[in-house]
Every structure is written in structure tokens, then in C-alpha cells.
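FW: tagging you since you asked about this chain on Friday. Here's the raw sequence from the shared folder, copied in full. Didn't touch anything.
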Amino acid sequence: MTNPNHYLFTSESVGEGHPDKVCDRISDSIVDLFLKEDPHSRVAVESLATSNRIVLAGEIRGPESITAHDMEKAAREAVHEIGYAQKGFHWQWLDVEIYVHAQSVDIAQGVDASGDKDEGAGDQGIMFGYACTETPTLMPAPICYSHKILRLISEDRHMGKLPLLGPDAKSQVTLEYVNGKPVRAARIVVSTQHDESIDQADVRELVRPYVAKALPEGWMCDDEHFYVNPTGRFVIGGPDGDAGLTGRKIIVDTYGGAAPHGGGAFSGKDPTKVDRSAAYMARYLAKNVVAAGIADRCTIQLAYAIGVSEPLAVYASTHGTNKVDDANLVDVLRQIVRLTPRAIREHLGLNRPIYKKTSSFGHFGREPEADGHFSWERLDLVAELKRAYKL
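HL: got it, structure written out here
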């Protein structure tokens, strides 16, 4: 039986060159392509990648000036940016097939505003947001450090400092928790594509300093529980080794299993799709609640019906960590921010080409940028929440 005061918890991340993440990046590149030309474009494009082949399929409503050739170019550029120029998956020589057609008029009429009707949600579904005090970014620690390991490796690979490592990589961090707080890494797994000229001992020593740098000082696990390429070889990587699909890494994209997930993927969808925009809003609300000192943990759930503007339900839980009476937390949040799809997009500035960056290293726990990237990570509700609770 698990001791609730002493336990291990694990989260994984995958790098930008993982086959599924290649597809997420391609799909989000298509979203950005359309939103750059017309911020009101509708896009729902999935990608499949395998050996020297990419297939795009989905629905769009946007400028006719954007052609299949433009979408193919965006897909190749995404693969090039990741760094794939290997025999079995080369950005320049791979085949690109495109099966993209106009958005269904039945869906469009539910989303479009008309008369007194506001814009409706682009689909039904439930979306969750979460925040906690485990890390400075208010993210769960296992997924935070899993992402950081791969991000540090990726940055140096792109700078030419790791020429013997390839784009495909995965990490997994198991942390020990005592009295509900993470205290050290108990197990670390890193798998990374590498040149066939080096052995696993070399790969291990290339990876080790990045793991140590990603973790808090003194948290590194012992050597016995530090696993690097446990299969013994990882030369063939990316879609040449394993086919990829858009939207298969939703737990990596969110909270690493430390919080619920509604089930909908983010990548490849414009912000009328509440799978994406409402999940961003839920994180925004939860993060501001925790940052305001109302609680140490917060989960927000939003529920929508296709074509309906107002959420069907809003739920909030502080998991017993509230420092003030949060019985009316939902009411306070709804007074501060409107939760219709249009209001979410306007409040967070989501009708912009800001999505390609989200396709790697998680959608949450990132730094908000002046040009609108990761706007849902802002803490601009903290002052209003503190006033509401007289903090």
C-alpha cells in the first residue's frame, strides 16, 4: 500500500525529434501559416510521418492564397528546423502528401456568430488546468525536470556542441516525495539518438551534465538508477524508426500525469477549438490562483458543447491546500474573466501565429513572451484575486 506521505512519482518528456513531436510541429506550423495570413482562419490539420514520408489531412477555412505547395513548404521547414537530414528521413527529399479540404459547414455554423448569437465552441469536451508550488514555474516537478533535460540538450545540439547526438530523444524522471514535497530524483532515464561511431558509455557521459544541470543541486540519483539508452543502441531514430502522429503526446504536453486531462490534443488546431484555447485558459486561471497565495495546488475544469458560447460547467478544486475560504472560487474567477470561446481568445490573444513553439517541451510552464507566445502563463490576475480575497 502506498504511503501518502512518502512515495515515488514519474513523468516523461519527449524531444522535438520524437516522431509524434515532429507531427505536432508540422501541424502547428500549418496553424501558424494560416493565422499569419488571416487571424480568423479555421484549421484542424493532422500529420503522419514515417520513413521519408509525411501525410497531411484535415479541414481548413482560410485564405485561398495559401496553397498545397505552401503547406508542403511549411512541413519541410519544420523538419529542417528540427534537424532531420538522415537517409531515412530527410527534410529535402521526403514525400509530402496533402489531403486537406474545407471545414464542414455543419461545424462552421455552430461556431460562427450570427445575429444575437455569440461565437460557439468549436467542439464539445472537457478541459483541465493545473498549477502547484513544486517549482518556480508552478508546474509539477517531474514533468518540469523531464522537459528541462531535453531542452538543454536540444539547445546545445542546435548550437553544434553535440554533433554526435541526433534529434530523437526521450526522458523520464522519477522523484521521491516526502510529506507531499519532492526531495530528490530516485530514477532518471534518458534515451537519445546518436551517431553509430560512439558507444553507450560515451553517450552516457555526454548526457550526464545536462541531467545534473536540469535538476536542483544535490538531487541527482545514484549511478545504478541512471539509465541512458537502456536498449543499448539508438542510431535509427525519428519517423524512420517509428511512425509518428499528431496529438499522441497529450500527457507530455500538459502535466505529466500529475493532473487530469480532458483527452483532446492541442496541436494542429486553431483557437476556436476549445480543446486548445480552454485548456490554456484553465491553466491560466489555476496558475494565477496559486500565484496569488490562495492555495498550494489548484485544478480547474471547463466543459463546453459545440456551438454553445458559455461553458456548461466550471469546477475548481484546491485539494485541501486552500489558505482562504475558496467556496466561491468559481464565482470569483467568472467575475474576473469571461469564459466564452471568443472572450478566451481575445483575453489571451490567441488568434496569432504563436503555436509552433508549443509543439516541443510542453505547452505549460513556459515564459510568456512580448509577442504573445505562452500568454496563458501570465500572472496578471494575481492582483485582482488578492483584492477579492483581501490578501
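FW: The first strand starts at residue 6 and ends at 14.
HL: agreed, and The two ends are 39 Å apart (CA to CA).
FW: great, closing this out.
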